[in-house]
Automatic annotation (TrEMBL):
The keyword Aminoacyl-tRNA synthetase does not apply. This is ABC transporter ATP-binding protein. SMART domains: AAA (SM00382). Pfam families: ABC_tran (PF00005). GO terms for molecular function: ATP binding. InterPro entries: AAA+_ATPase (IPR003593), ABC_transporter-like_ATP-bd (IPR003439), ABC_transporter-like_CS (IPR017871), ABC_transpr_LolD-like (IPR015854), MacB-like_ATP-bd (IPR017911), P-loop_NTPase (IPR027417). The keyword Transcription regulation does not apply. Residues 24-251 form the ABC transporter domain. PROSITE patterns: ABC_TRANSPORTER_1 (PS00211), ABC_TRANSPORTER_2 (PS50893). Keywords: ATP-binding, Nucleotide-binding, Transport.
Amino acid sequence: MTLAHIPAAAPESAAAHVTGTAVLQLSQVARTYPGQPPVHALLPLDLTVRAGEYVAIVGPSGSGKSTLLNLLGLLDRPTGGSIQLAGVDASLLKERERTALRGRNIGFVFQAFHLLAHRTAVENVALAQLYIDVKPAARRAAAVEALVRVGLGHRLHALPSTMSGGERQRVAIARALVNAPALILCDEPTGNLDTTTARSVMDLLEELNRTGVTLLVITHDPEVAGRARRSIRIRDGRLQADPPSGPGAAA
């Protein structure tokens, strides 16, 4: 499969938000690390995330969260099963094609923000567009729009060192949004924030989800997981769904 066969993020996202089609689909995905004995970090599991969903995967340390995150984000390959992202089977792609698929269809939000210290907020967000086909003249406008969307239109030229933790995480969320991905994947998005700021960031994620953004949050925090519309527990490499929860869940 060539890059020409990989769907661009914006059209796929727009169509998916209307139809509720599967954005991410794992079928009997497993991950075993070699050794004596081998470590079965993830046992065969199925998972489907549809457009517009807000899903949390919650579990303690050592449960398999990090392994699952690397597979969901196409940062690692499973030892069994298949992963489809935006309708494309990633197992059929070469590494360069996987990178392109990931860059077009997944926005990442990490616990540690991962902002470049000597770049302004708008520059940090614009850098995310280097991996997709966006003309340089359009990058800044898109970055400004994303920052305005997360409530940072007044902090476009601020450096990370002059920002609060909550502002830095909002810049990271804007960076994840700027390419209009099919999915935003959050890894412990409130792990470095105080309680009040964490709730503000979770409020923002809920607001984005209400506008159609598809979210998958991986966390150890039950309170964070409880804000999602669907919560899934992971333990000893196995998934177990909880009843629907969060705003808008069925009674």
